[in-house]
Hints:
The protein has helices at 4-12, 19-38, 47-54, 58-61, 63-75, 79-86, 88-108, 112-126, 129-140, 146-174, 179-182, 184-199, 213-232, 242-264, 278-308, 313-320, 325-337, 343-361, 370-396, 404-442, 450-461, 466-504, 516-520. Helices cover 75% and strands 0% of the residues. It has three domains: 1-210, MFS general substrate transporter like domains (Growth Hormone, Chain: A), CATH 1.20.1250.20; 212-266, no CATH class; 277-524, Growth Hormone, Chain: A (Up-down Bundle). The model is unreliable at 1-12 and 512-524 (pLDDT under 50). The relative contact order is 0.13. The two termini are 20 Å apart. The chain contains 23 helices and no strands. Helix 2 runs antiparallel to helix 9 (129-140) and helix 18 packs antiparallel against helix 19. It is an all-alpha fold.
Amino acid sequence: MAEQTTTANTLATPGPLKGGSLVLGTIALSLATFMNVLDSSIANVSLPTIGGDLGVSLNQVTWVITSFAVANAISIPLTGWLTLRFGAVRLFTWSVVLFVLASLLCGLAPSIELLIVCRVIQGAVAGPMIPLSQSLLLSSYPASRSGTALAMWSVTTLVAPVAGPLLGGYITDNFSWPWIFYINIPIGLATAWITWVIYRKRESPTRKLPVDAVGLALLVIWVGSLQIALDKGKELDWLASPLILTLALIAMVGFVVFLIWELTEEHPVVDLRLFKRLNFSVGAVALSLGYGVFFGNVVLLPLWLQEYMGYTATWAGLVTAPVGVLAILFSPIVGKNVNRVDPRLLASVAFMVFALVFYLRSGFNTQTDVHTLLVPTIIQGIAMAFFFIPLVSLTLSGLRPDQIPAASGLSNFLRITAGAFGTSIATTLWDNRTTLHHTQLIEHISSYNAQASDALNKLLQSGMTLAQATAQINQIVTQQAAILSADDIFYASSLICLGLIGLVWLAKPVKSTATAGVASSGAH
């Protein structure tokens, strides 16, 4: 990971771009980032439709999200080695081209198994895109305008989560779900062509370096085993299943061996020695846990709306999209003040707002209207603006310049992996708690319950048979159980965010956050 320093230095050597080349280069690099981040959220509102078309359950179809995230997280630490081996411009261009090809294959996938395989490929080749787009963009501007460049770059990563649910919902309802992947093709090809034309003469030097193949293999084994265990656990009855038990043991042993290997390897794929620094440990853990809670809720909300509230994918997208509006407005303000205000204070604001948002959602019921749904979604944008930049500033505070690429890569790996785990945990808990609440609610339905008897009689009087009336009541109970379960998760998420405020303040005061601006965009 430390080799990335050389890359950063070489990218800074060429003079800044000017005129049309600067404009086109900025647009191309920003579009690549937009496309990458978009693909982590555009499928959220399309999951029920994808599951229905491919004939799989919601538990299975969430792999479409988690497989991309895990593969993306695992490939990020390799960016430094790949850059030095092939060159920044060549690697970035090929990443975009392969991303386009993987997107095409995702759209053509005839089964959930093939779709997941293609999403793994898509996530893996996307790993270098975001860090290299940031590095190439910084090399395009004079040092005095680096803040402007990064502000533009950061806004792109905030617009994508807004556009993702809207585009995903509109495309799913008016065309078909494969088009959420096909739209990457024209954007990606244009981005690759423009980038190559403008930057090919600004290629970074290359040299052969040893790659930590053992460390990478162990990383894939333990992360992959744990993710599969989380995704398949509910379906196979957790540790009662020999498969889940085996995967859990592989993940545990693989993790221990991975730790030992990486701490003794001369060129580790992940530099775990960074955890010796208190601020890095606190910042990285808070960032990862916070993002895991956030992303789990991002996936859960549209699933509930479509499965139990009768929302179309478009309307689910409209309800979840405004999360980026206030984030876009507040991010420049946070970016300008992160060097002047204690980042622990700014991060505390983020977690307090997140806690408020999840608390408001914990009061949702089957009668909740669109306005009530939108209020916490819009407020959440404030939390997003105060979340990424201060926590990355805290994570990277006190590090030498040559340590920052490795630290940024490791914190991004942890964050993205936590997002994938958070999705699996949230959907699994939702399913388990729905079953529990359904059992508890159904116990109150009997001939001795006046309300239940009255409801049953009204259904029978409307012309339904006893079987139809009973099925209708069971459906109402299931809908109520699902929202009670979602409320449980929202409430628990609120408590976790309050707890993360205390974690943040375990870090030492930040004396200098000069590197925060440069690194902030890497958090998105």
